[in-house]
Amino acid sequence: MKKYVYLFQEGRADMKALLGGKGANLAEMTNIGLPVPTGMTITTEACNAYYQAGGKLPDGLSDEIKQNLAIVEEKSGKKLGNLADPLLVSVRSGAMFSMPGMMDTILNLGLNEQTVESVAKITGSQVFAYDSYRRFIQMFSDVVLEIPKYEFEHILASHKEKQGVKYDQELTEESLRAIIEDYQQLVWDKTGKPFPEEPLKQLFMAIEAVFRSWNNDRAIVYRNLNKISHDLGTAVNIQTMVFGNRGDTSGTGVAFTRNPSTGENVLYGEYLTNAQGEDVVAGIRTPQPIAKLADEMPEIYKQFAAIARQLESHYKNMQDIEFTVEQGTLYILQTRNGKRTAAAAVKVAYDMVDSGLIDKKDALLLVEPNQLDQLLHRGIDDSVKLDVIATGLPASPGAASGQVVFDADEAEKWAKNGSQVLLVRNETTPDDIHGIVAAQGVLTSRGGMTSHAAVVARGMGKPCVCGCDAIRIDYAKKEFTVGNTTVAQGDIISIDGATGRVIVGAVPMREPTLSSEYLTVLEWADSFKKLTVRANADTPEDALKAREFGAQGIGLTRTEHMFMGQDRLPYVQQMILAETLDERQAALDHLLPMQEGDFYGILKAMDGYPVTIRLLDPPLHEFLPSLEELLVETTELRVRGNNPALLEEKSQLLKKVRSLQEFNPMLGHRGCRLGLTYPEIYDMQMKAIFQAVARLVKEGYTVIPEIEIPLPIDVKEMRFFIERMAVLADEVKQAAGVDFSYTAGSMIELPRAALLADEIAEVAEFFSFGTNDLTQTTLGFSRDDAEGKFLSQYIQHKIFKESPFIALDREGVGKLMKIAVAGGRKTRPNMTIGICGEHGGEPSSVEFCHEIGLDYVSCSPYRVPVARLAAAQAAISTGENIGTR
Ligand code: PEP
Ligand code: MG
């Protein structure tokens, strides 16, 4: 029979898939001798078996739980339901990947009308016992019986009011007793049954509730957002309770081994004296910084700091540790790899190599590539005078301006309508997650650096200011006040997550500066990666930016963007509207010097590196006014009848636009089909490239131009262009009196091109995968239609794990790519092959490109660092580079 239950001493850190992250770490910590309260983990396989059995515990599981419970009882010296010394346990979910706050925890399980009196006797405190009991009823009823939390909060608040106190811990035993009775009555009213008294029954109900919570709405949203598979299941951890709320020598806290915002190597966290774990995480009371523990409980602080160091060396990663002190004894409840900002990730990786804890390969694997572009984004420009109205905790860096909204649903709605919003709340809960997703940033009045808002915002790379207690929010009036300032819903404010400042109005932002650690870590990445990283850039400015971020060439210059400027568009339109070749040539003669200037600028900016220039791609109607616009204009002109010349001009334009209209422009008259129809357009572009190259060569620059044909399907098509190219190159060389070289290649963005790549390679000297179009044409999905209409169904039905327009579809599109690589290299073994679709900057796609042996990936300048790191990770994790440095 399958083993479904593991005692903590039976597990290991590498059993995360089976025991969940939390369970595996509790086991590991137990086995390295840390003070972990004893317990057991029910596996993720048991959760899946529960669902397979239609929502029932699988056969044998309940006996296995009871047998292991007996061992836990023996180890702790206490027994569930025993009146002399009752065992109390916590029951928590714990999936393979951490899902902060997404599922629920039950503390103090095992309490009932009898055992609560035993606890009172043993601890000598009825207040403590009753308070534990009322918390247990509340949590159990919320998680297991699904009675909304606020109903209990309401009862609690009314008793606090009756007794005239502000804080929970001021409640007397009489008040607590009365609260318990009201809670029990509420359970009766809601369920028609008494609150379950039998501890073993409580335990089994709680276990099933944790299994069910795997599929609650917010857990599903979180998994979708973080691309976590829905079939992993959650483990259940059952652990002996220790109490942080047994007076002033007790407490509970959460600490990171390093600062998760900056990466600075100091213990970073917070704790609350005389409190249970939920009080810290929920962010309801604002806790003390951990450094203060050194004054209040110096011995405990010393012991904790040593354990933190031990855990970090053991896991070779920054840890996020939960601890409790019960009457002067320290317990470690949990450790996991700490979530961190990009800045912190880079600094931690760098510092850990510097101190010899890890090597460079491990360091590179510690940084999440997608995080890196956070560092390239803007902060607030401090050189201008700012109207700072309050300062909270700098919980997640970056800065944002937006309209204030006080509710997650509202935030989502406003954002959908195109507004930039900041979510402002007293605190956030997992129910607010969609609002945080929609917002530019989050501001809370309560809660610390480990509150829900802070953790979630950091994970998403959004700015967050927490615990800003100067602001007073009035949800009913939809406004907040700070001193004399009132900010209403819809007003614009700015927050600075790096300093905690809250500022009235929108503020100017500044470009980021890159730390030396950042530059060094990326240099390490370069030393391991096999793929070259290029950028997609259409202007010299973008080209320079790309070089600054480490691009080693341009993989795609989209020349159509150069046709759009106000100085060119009239000539482009003239070129399109021309009735004769002469007329068209006249327009092209105007465009030639401008294009030459464009190419000159880009090739010069990329001195020494290759630049792939793609000839015109989009259908010509994109350069003309829209049909609807022209219809309105001509109708108006006709009705007014006062400008027949303009009417004639617009009517001609309308006629042309009509003639260019296509049923399906994506599959229409675009790409090199335009070049076949109007070869003079491509001739002009090729001539402009060669003239720019000739000038630069004369000026002493090293230029490596690669001329690229978009959307071909056949070698004969390619021959047509390449032959003209050779003639033009010779003419320019002759005229300029210089020699230069260039290469000619093909985009591979249609299935036919991939299938016939071996033939195309007879003339194409390089390939570049245009995976945007290749994805559209392989799937038969037009991106805009798919994303707006039906792609979500494909994700929901698990046909695709994520959008194939974001992460490359390895099975389909990837298969065509492999065929094209094999075909191309069969004909031309050393041909350069790259990718310039958006996938070129997406880490899992970069990994695939590494695996199939591409030479380079090309992406937008801001994604270049992401691609550099992803390429290094791909090389390191396939083991190819081990030992090369
Ligand atoms: C592509 O299709 O992947 C590509 C890079 O071309 P564009 O996005 O310009 O169509
Ligand atoms: Mg394309």
Q: Which keywords apply here?
A:
alpha/beta, Dna Ligase, domain 1, D-amino Acid Aminotransferase, Chain A, domain 1, 8-stranded mixed β-sheet, 8-stranded parallel beta barrel, 33 helices, 45% helix, elongated, binds phosphoenolpyruvate
> Low-confidence segments, ≥5 residues, pLDDT <50?
881-885
Distance between the termini: 48 Å
> Proportion of β residues?
15-25%
In spatial order, strands of the major sheet run 12-22-21-14-15-16-17-13
Given the C-alpha coordinates, what overall shape results?
Answer: elongated
Characterization of the model:
Helix 4 (115-123) packs antiparallel against helix 5 (126-143) and helix 18 (516-528) packs across helix 33. This protein has an eight-stranded mixed sheet with strand order 12-22-21-14-15-16-17-13. Strands 24-25-26-27-28-29-30-31 form an eight-stranded parallel beta barrel, surrounded by seven helices. A five-stranded antiparallel sheet has the order 1-2-5-3-4. The protein is of the alpha/beta class. Strand 21 (492-496) and strand 22 (501-504) form a beta hairpin. The protein has four domains: 5-240, Dna Ligase, domain 1, CATH 3.30.1490; 251-340, D-amino Acid Aminotransferase, Chain A, domain 1, CATH 3.30.470.20; 378-510, Phosphohistidine domain (Glucose Oxidase, domain 1, 3-Layer(bba) Sandwich), CATH 3.50.30.10; 516-619 and 662-877, Phosphoenolpyruvate-binding domains (TIM Barrel), CATH 3.20.20. Helices cover 45% and strands 17% of the residues. The chain is elongated and about 105 Å long. The protein binds phosphoenolpyruvate (PEP) and magnesium ion. Phosphoenolpyruvate binds at residues 556, 558, 617, 749, 770-773, 836-837.
